[in-house]
Task: inverse folding
């Protein structure tokens, strides 16, 4: 379809740093899904080519995760606007501040003393459960790699103290 090709080219032009494969994925899967739900063509979308490429760049840079990006895309699709403005307004940015995540992990560990005690007694699978609790506490916005690293360090420190 010519209009889809033109949209894709415009999105690439708007942000030459964007990965064309990832852009194509977001266009053909996520945006098309929203368009098909309401029976619109690409030319009628409120999501401009530059907005879509900006959104993909935000995911690529780790500024937001894919889950948040899908929520941002839906909001832009229905109401228009820029991804950065929606992320800022709705607080959807990735939590990557080490001290903030350390405090969150401390809170999760303090809130689940029974599971921590079982972990310290050798039930290591509970580290995954605790990670899930920390992600839930961060509303899915925590940088998963950093969160895992902090949780691992704190559990290792607790284990060495036992």
Result:
């Amino acid at each position: 379809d010519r209009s889809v090709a033109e949209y894709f080219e415009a999105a690439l032009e708007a942000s030459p740093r964007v990965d064309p494969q990832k852009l194509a994925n977001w266009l053909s899967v996520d945006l098309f899904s929203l368009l098909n739900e309401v029976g619109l063509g690409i030319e009628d979308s409120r999501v401009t080519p530059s907005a879509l490429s900006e959104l993909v760049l935000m995911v690529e840079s780790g500024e937001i995760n894919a889950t948040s990006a899908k929520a941002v895309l839906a909001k832009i699709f229905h109401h228009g606007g820029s991804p950065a403005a929606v992320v800022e307004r709705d607080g959807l940015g990735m939590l990557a501040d080490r001290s903030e995540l350390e405090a969150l992990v401390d809170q999760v560990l303090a809130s689940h003393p029974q599971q921590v005690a079982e972990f310290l007694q050798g039930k290591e699978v509970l580290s995954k459960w605790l990670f899930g609790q920390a992600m839930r506490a961060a509303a899915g916005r925590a940088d998963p790699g950093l969160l895992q690293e902090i949780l691992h360090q704190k559990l290792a420190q607790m284990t060495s103290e036992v």
Observations:
- The two ends are 65 Å apart (CA to CA).
- The chain is about 75% helix and 0% strand.
- The longest helix spans residues 20-38.
